[in-house]
Amino acid sequence: MNLGRGVSLVGGATTKFGVRAATWAEIAQEAGEALFRSMPTLTSADVDSLFVGAAEPERFAFQSHVAPFVAEQLGLAPRRVVQRTELACASGQSAIRSAYAAIASGLSDVAVAVGVEKMNIPSMAEANTSMACVMDRAWDGAHGATAPPFFAMVAQRHMLEYGTTEEAFAAVSEKNHTYANSNPNAQFAEKTFDRAKLGRLPVVAPPLRLGDCSSMTDGGAAVVLVAEELASKYTDRPVHVRGTGQYADFHNLANAGSLTDWVGLKHASREAFRSAGIGPSDLDFAEVHDCFTISEIVEYEAIGLCEPGEGGKFVLDGRSSIGGDVAVNTRGGLLGCGHPLGATGIAQAVEVFDQFAGRVPSARQVPSPEWALVHNLSGSANVHSVMIYQGAS
Amino acid sequence: MGAEIARERRRPPVSEPSPSPPEATPGEPPAKKAVAPPPFLLDFFPLEDAKQTRLSPFFDHLRAGRLTTTRCRRDGRMSWPPRVVCPDCHTSELDWVDLPAAGRIYAFSAVLMGAPLGMEADVPFVVGLVEMDGVPFRLFGRIVGTPWETCRIGMPVRPEPYDLGDGRVFYRFRTVT
Fold it and tell me: Which segments of chain B does DSSP mark as H helices, in order?
């Protein structure tokens, strides 16, 4: 799959992530403020299209029709494409993929992809209800299925089938929290977690503890994608979209098949690698969807960074840290940054741009990167979305 | 599956034996405040009435102690959840078939925090995937009868109906010991 025109990522920014004293609309405005501040040559009039990644504004903010709503918050008047993308936890990447497709096809020249989510509301039971309706609400949600017990079952099976340990889970969390300490916009920028401390946190859904789970987070992020020939107006370090893949293979939990072999991610990442003309060993860094520690471990395996069953060893051996085979989640991951559903995929792309531009703090800078992969899963890992980017050499 | 529907109030619901609430003294408020039902769109459970769903036979069967699903008359495909159109041949010629009365835990966890609205009083509760012989999918559901600390993969379970307390029924699994 190679689309028409080349598409470049030319900049982006995020708001502060966390439990924010700010409404959904205010977070959208902050994303606009951060974007225009980080891109001095971008004007509102340049932007012909807007894609808004938002998972559940109807449930968390009682607001529908959010694409024009965000356009107004950002002071934009899109004249080619204006739309919302909803794909639960992957809503942000879905906005970027849609912007990519629109630009590649010639429908758009300059597109903004914005992600916004406001998840901390006065009733956390209602917020948890919103998370449960990501599942098949009537047949799975009604039993109390939310993300933690599902991913806990993945962890339980991985431990049974491969001997993966709770120490491996803690190693993922420790790594990502450590990187988040160099990201001031991360929800847990100020908090330090080592494996011993993580092992003392309360159990949420056995075997997963609090430190194995990403949080309910408020946050926004925005990026700009343009036709490759227009990139030089905005940056001298454009990042090019080289490949993408996506796969959905079930929805109701009954039809999940193996919990530890994520076939959908194998399909999506292979398609992305094929279209980019590279393989897993070419990657310099990756932003993968660590909604839970076990997710990152299974993702190493399905993307092909290591063999099936060896994901725990991969992180314990430091192979997913800077200086290892591939630096994974240098932004701090969903574990360290928090997981505002619609904003996460956009914030990962911001990290990709900033890494290639050499403008992240040295504590998390990957030396001279060329290739990066971004992955989001959504729901019960039943959809996988992957993009591959190449930096300017 | 037992022929009788377990008669339990929806709240405090299903899972482990909970102490019965103390008898209310006349003139004094009850010891535990009753939880109001959630607004319609925050109620998780399916609509069951034939005026609202073509799957109402599923719930009629459940009331009679049978856990059933649909199987395509043309290609034999058994689906979960039950359907009105076969996903393979896209026809609506489906029959109701009984699921086995026994299964085993394939994977499980428990909700110890972060329960959705209306389920807060159930915490901690066990959920899991149950495999059944001859069934091409694993049913997800609540598992009652054994606390999470002593549940094990492979433990035998049987499905049972339970009363939601508002005219509706739903299913869950009970460990067989």
Answer: 56-63
pTM comes to: 0.93
Q: Are the C-beta atoms of residues B62 and B46 closer than 8 Å to each other?
A: no
What does the alpha-carbon distance between residue A211 and residue A193 come to, in Å, rounded to a whole number? 8
pLDDT in tens, A58-92: 999 999 999 999 999 999 999 999 999 999 999 99
Active site residues of A: 89, 339
Q: Do A206 and B44 touch (CB under 8 A)?
A: no
State the residue for tokens 């290591």: A306
Phi, psi of B159 (to 5 degrees): -75, 150
Going from the N-terminus, what domains does chain A have, and what CATH number goes with each?
7-122+217-239 (3.40.47.10), 142-216+244-391 (3.40.47.10)
Is some CB atom of chain A closer than 8 A to the CB atom of B45? yes
Q: Count the neighbouring beta carbons within 10 Å of the beta carbon of residue B81.
A: 18
Name the closest residue on chain A to residue B46, using Cα atoms: A138
A58 lies within 8 A of chain B by CB: no
Nearest to A149 by CA among A164, A131, A161: A131
Q: Hey, where are the domains in chain B?
A: 44-99, 100-177
Are A219 and A18 a contacting pair, CB within 8 Å? yes
Residue with tokens 């899991």: B128
Q: What percentage of chain A exceeds 70 in pLDDT?
A: 99
Residue A277 vs residue B118, higher pLDDT: A277
Q: Which residues of A touch B42 (CB under 8 A)?
A: 126, 129
Q: Give the closest residue to A30 by CA, choosing from A74, A65, A92.
A: A74
Tell me the C-alpha distance between A24 and A83, whole Å.
17
Cα–Cα distance, B126 to B110 (Å, whole number)? 4
Contact B111 A129 (CB under 8 A): no
Q: Which of A143, A203, A292 to mutate to test the interface with B (most CBs of B within 10 A)?
A: A143
A146/B81 Cβ within 8 A: no
Q: Determine contact: B140 vs chain A, CB below 8 A.
A: yes
